[in-house]
Write a structure and sequence with these properties.
CATH architecture: Roll
Number of helices: 2
Number of strands: 7
Shape: globular
Number of domains: 1
Largest sheet: 7 strands, antiparallel
């Protein structure tokens, strides 16, 4: 059973926190408090309801498109591998692309290579083509 009450309390803290947003760039992987969500939407875990995300497209210093990351390896057009040079297998879940406020970012994990990023960009673009 998901604890939506605890997530609501946590997101209230995130929203009311007057600390400045962190500075982030495209290609970076961050821990992000994405919360406890509905149905098949990706959830965060732990006290901060966090999971790793890739900063896919930065719009300004406040918001960006994020791709949730998983270590449960899957293949197909909805997934693309993420490489952080730490020997941990990861995938970006392309179908879960979403807008995120930088207030949700809690800690930088690393940065992917330009080549890996371009492959992910192409995979996302291919999902959008009819």
């Amino acid at each position: 059973m998901k604890n939506y009450k605890k997530w609501h309390e946590e997101k209230t803290i995130i929203e009311c926190n007057n600390v400045s947003r962190v500075f982030f760039h495209e290609r970076e992987v961050w821990w992000c408090s994405i919360g406890s969500n509905i149905g098949y939407e990706q959830d965060g875990g732990g006290e901060k309801f966090s999971r790793p995300v890739l900063v896919f497209k930065k719009f300004n210093n406040e918001v960006f498109w994020a791709l949730p990351i998983s270590t449960k390896m899957k293949s197909g057009k909805f997934y693309e591998q993420i490489f952080l040079n730490d020997k941990i297998n990861r995938i970006a879940i392309l179908s879960q692309l979403r807008m995120i406020d930088a207030k949700r970012l809690t800690g930088k994990i690393g940065i992917i290579s330009l080549g890996n990023y371009i492959a992910i960009q192409k995979a996302v673009t291919n999902l959008c083509v009819l």
